[in-house]
Write a structure and sequence with these properties.
The complex is a heterodimer. Chain A is an all-beta fold. Helix content of chain A is 0%, strand content 54%. Chain B has no helices and eleven strands. Classes of the chains: A mainly beta, B mainly beta.
Chain lengths: 116, 116
């Protein structure tokens, strides 16, 4: 496989469930990102891992918990979500830059999350 | 407040009818401007990076230009396969007591439809 792969592509969960989103990149990058995309709103950065260390979380609610076990894998653990958390969650990767984020991102196809 | 505004929100063209999309920004500490293409149900695909006013980049029927306050994505003789949402993003980098930090701010996008 090549590029950035996200699983599952679609997820429906209740507010009391616990689930995880998975992302894997085969591009040799050393930075990975989670973005949230809601209808009629710009992409929102949630988390950044550069060289496997978290560098940004943008005040995301604690019901979202990221995990980056190595430079190729990224997880987003979900628990006690709210209906307003329903959105497309996009994973991206890039080469790490010493001055913060890199704008040349390679995105996966996203995980469409619906919270009932 | 740092802001990225894209216009129009939606654009319908006939095949072969050239036009331009606009991305204006009010930010400080700009370190780059990026264009992405997003097809329905897919993640954004990186197109161009522009770093300084006067810079231009081309790819097939697309040409991106940058001034001090805005960027244009010119589409020459578009085809139906150019139909997509085009996203603009600006990379900001700033220095504080914690060192260098950055953020990539996206606009809401322009949805382009090209009819045969």
């Amino acid at each position: 496989e090549t590029g950035v792969t996200q699983t599952p592509r679609h997820l429906v969960m209740g507010m009391t469930n616990k689930k995880s989103l998975k992302c894997e990149q085969h591009l040799g990058h050393n930075a990975m990102y989670w973005y949230k995309q809601s209808a009629k709103k710009p992409l929102e950065l949630m988390f950044v891992y550069s060289l496997e260390e978290r560098v940004e979380n943008n005040s995301v609610p604690s019901r979202f918990s990221p995990e980056c076990p190595n430079s190729s894998h990224l997880f987003l653990h979900l628990h006690t979500l709210q209906p307003e958390d329903s959105a497309l969650y996009l994973c991206a990767s890039s080469h790490a830059h010493t001055q913060g984020l890199n704008g040349e991102l390679f995105f996966g196809e996203g995980s469409r999350l619906t919270v009932l | 407040e740092d802001q990225v505004t894209q216009s129009p929100e939606a654009l319908r063209l006939q095949e072969g009818e050239s036009s331009s999309l606009n991305c204006s920004y009010t930010v400080s500490g700009l370190r780059g401007l990026f264009w992405y293409r997003q097809d329905p149900g897919k993640g954004p695909e990186f197109l161009f990076t522009l770093y300084s006013a006067g810079e231009e980049k081309e790819k097939e029927r697309l040409k991106a230009t940058l001034t001090k306050k805005e960027s244009f994505l010119h589409i020459t003789a578009p085809k139906p396969e150019d139909s997509a949402t085009y996203l603009c993003a600006v990379l900001l980098v700033w220095v504080n007591y914690g060192g260098s930090q950055g953020n990539l701010i996206f606009g809401k996008g322009t949805k382009l439809s090209v009819k045969p």
